[in-house]
Amino acid sequence: MALLRLENVTKRFGGLVAVDKVNLEIQPGELIGIVGPNGSGKT
Fold this sequence. Notes:
- With 43 residues, this protein is mainly beta.
- The protein has one domain.
- It contains no helices and two strands.
- The protein has strands at residues 4-13, 16-26.
- A two-stranded antiparallel ribbon has the order 1-2.
- A hairpin with a 2-residue loop joins strand 1 and strand 2.
- The chain is flat and about 35 Å long.
- It starts with a strand and ends in a 17-residue tail after the last strand.
- The mean pLDDT is 93.
């Protein structure tokens, strides 16, 4: 069973699509990191 599941997540800033239809599944005990440049929307 997934600890966290995201399905078809899209994030837009005005007319700019920053993230389009992202799927993510995290299982208990897994360690993940999200990397990218400053201001890229990781938060």
